[in-house]
Amino acid sequence: MSNLTFEEMNLSQEILNAVKDMGFEEATPIQAQAIEKIMDGKDVIGQSQTGTGKTAAFGIPCIETINPENHSLQAIILSPTRELAIQICEEFRKLLKYKENIKILPIYGGQPIDRQIFALKKGIQIIVGTPGRIMDHMKRRTLKMETVKLVVLDEADEMLDMGFREDIEIILKKIPDDRQTILFSATMPREIIELTKKFQKNPEHIKVARKELTVPNIKQTYYEIKEKTKLEATSRLIDMYSPELSIIFCNTKKRVDDLVEQLQGRGYFAEGLHGDLKQQQRDIVMKKFRGRTIEILVATDVAARGIDVDDIDIVINYDLPQDEEYYVHRIGRTGRAGKTGMAFSFVVGREIYKLRDIMKYTKAKVHLGKLPSLTDIEEAKTNNFIEKIKNVIEENHLSKYINLVEKMMNEDISSIDIAAALLKMNLYDEESEDIDFEDDFTDSEKMIRLFINIGKNKKVRAKDIVGAIAGESGIPGKSLGHIDIYENFTFIDVPKKYAKDILKGMKGKKIKNNKVNVEKAKNK
Ligand code: ADP
Ligand code: MG
To answer: Mean pLDDT across the chain, nearest whole number?
Structure first.
């Protein structure tokens, strides 16, 4: 069923040409099943995950049923957000490329209503809008519902979640009974079933089998970590894979805001997207994300729904989702259009049981991973850099620089030395020279024992040592662990991740006026 081509359906040449231009080779399973049924005039319930081509699944038959000679309104698409309404409209416009006399208009809040009214007067056959704004137009009688023959509810569960139920019912009641009603929803909660019973006639329920819910070309990995290492783990994954675009999911708005701040603090181009933002702010964020001025979008489930940006390289579940269905939606953001995507999930403690449920539900294997060490990241960066060098050589606009190299070679500097020096300047910063302690990140929670060469003989007390270490190396005193002070020396447990800073900070310093030597203790 899934291999049906568009040519095998009963479609007009204009649509076939448009679909070809859009690069669609064959119909997706939901398209293969929904398009003909809708063209046959049946009411349809379509259920499949994000990214499976639902827009064209209703868009193609919708366009085919429009009579271009007739300039009255014939189809209404209801969408939960303005963002999605615009996306649907864009997809429709591509499908309409060779259909000259069919006009479509998006209608949503935040845009001057006068302009919409003016546009509507020019004879629009399809509108795509949010329920709220469509209600406004109905009240002003600027939309004539009597001629509507087809209505589509896209992301119906989402619209109900957003409180549009009443508006939807009012709108549907206004549209003549002989209409066709199509409903797309990722999930089928009781409220949706009630809605379909009330407003659809013998609907055909098309459900893309759960097996197909997870996209095969997404590599799914999980990491068992602690809450407080999530940020570091995120940085490492981003540094390791250098994604152009990634989405990180958190379970609450507050956690989105916090994470955005922390990522920005670490120098990443990250911004957040959640329900508290005004529509205009959301648009700005999305525009930046599409234009790649931001590389990381941190979002809640609801805010990210329906956003269609391809080329997402990585999805990170910073928090494991509450609902298994959400997991599928989240990771479905990546691995689109035949590309391979990566999905990483952080699992804290007992959440492993939730992950097991997710695996059972999606019938997918999520592999336990080991977070990249700093060495891994360095290696990845080096390889990246070497790739870049190769590309530059291939592009071959180098004559100016070759002259420079020749000049240096005249001063008896070898070309190998020049190249090595340039690599060093570009690749290795001071920080990355000594990474002994941090090789294994999953152990970095653990403490490491340091040796200090003074003890009771010099009358030092624990608070002197803690004070000196905290003061000299700038780490929080309370993060230091157990201290054993002996006659001639002292042992102190410190977090592994700070060990390097402490050793550096204490070099040549004094405690209670005694010059000290701090080093890694043997045997632990
Ligand atoms: P959904 O509404 O199910 O989340 P969309 O309709 O937004 O999915 O489609 C996701 C992406 O897949 C879009 O970029 C769309 O252009 C593309 N797409 C849709 N149908 C096909 C197809 N048959 N072949 C290839 N790409 C497709
Ligand atoms: Mg959609």
So the answer is: 87
- Residue ranges covered by each domain of the chain: 6-207, 218-374, 375-427, 447-520
Residue 202 has pLDDT above 80, yes or no: yes
Cβ neighbours of residue 314 closer than 8 Å, sequence gap 6 or more: 237, 238, 241, 243, 246, 247, 334, 341, 342, 343, 344
Find the ligand nearest to 84 CA.
2
- Within 10 angstroms of residue 502's Cβ, the number of other Cβ atoms is 22
Q: Would strands 150-153 and 180-184 be described as parallel, antiparallel, or unpaired? A: parallel
What's the mean pLDDT in 71-95? 95
Determine how many CB atoms are found less than 10 A away from the CB of residue 315: 25
CA-proximal residue: ligand 1, atom 22 (nearest): 24
Rounded to whole angstroms, the Cα distance separating 25 from 4 reads 10
Q: How far is the centre of ligand 2, averaged over its atoms, from the C-alpha of 154 (Å)?
A: 7
Average pLDDT over residues 45-74: 93
Burial environment of residue 164 by CB neighbours within 10 A (0 to 12, 13 to 18, 19 or more) = buried
Amino acid 395: pLDDT: 84
Distance CA(320)–CA(322), nearest Å, equals 7
* Top-confidence residue, 281 or 65: 65
Atom number, ligand 1, closest to the C-alpha of residue 155: 2
CA distance 135 to 17: 36
How far apart, in whole angstroms, are the C-alpha atoms of residue 131 and residue 167?
6
Q: What's the rounded mean pLDDT across residues 384-399?
A: 86
Q: How many residues does the chain have?
A: 524
Lowest-confidence pick of 80-84, 223-227, 272-276: 272-276
Which residues contact ligand 1 via a Cβ below 6 A?
Answer: 24, 27-28, 31, 50-56, 308, 310, 337
User: How does DSSP assign 266-317, residue by residue?
Assistant: TT--EEEE-TTS-HHHHHHHHHHHHTTS--EEEE-HHHHTT-----B-EEEE
Q: Give the largest Cα separation in the chain, rounded.
A: 101
Pick the CATH number of 447-520 from 3.30.310.50, 3.30.70.330, 3.40.50.2300, 3.30.930.10: 3.30.70.330
What does the pLDDT read at residue 302?
A: 78
CA distance 454 to 511: 9
- Paired with 126 in beta bridges are 75, 104
Fold (CATH) for 6-207: Rossmann fold (3.40.50)
Instruction: Return the CATH number of the domain spanning residue range 218-374.
Output: 3.40.50.300
Q: Answer whether 56's CB lies under 8 Å from 215's CB.
A: no
Residue nearest to atom 17 of ligand 1 (CA): 53
Question: What pLDDT does 523 receive?
Answer: 59
Check residue 212 and give its pLDDT: 46
Confidence label for 445 from pLDDT (cuts 50, 70 and 90): low
**Which run of H or of E encompasses 383?**
helix 374-395
pLDDT value, residue 4: 73
Cα(28) to centroid(ligand 2), Å: 13
